[in-house]
Amino acid sequence: VFIAQSRASGSHRDVEDEELTRIFVMIPKTYTEEDLREKFKMYGDIEYCSIIKNKTTGESKGLGYVRYLKPSQAARAIEECDRSYRAILAEPKNKSSESFEHDYYSNNMRQDLRGNALPFCMQPEFCSFEKTETRIPEPVSKRLSVVSRLPFIQEQLFALFDLVPGLEYCDVQRDPHTNSGYAVIQYSTAASAIYAKYKLHGFEYPPGNRLTVIFLEDGNDSSE
Question: What is the domain partition of the chain in residue ranges?
Answer without folding.
Answer: 16-89, 143-215
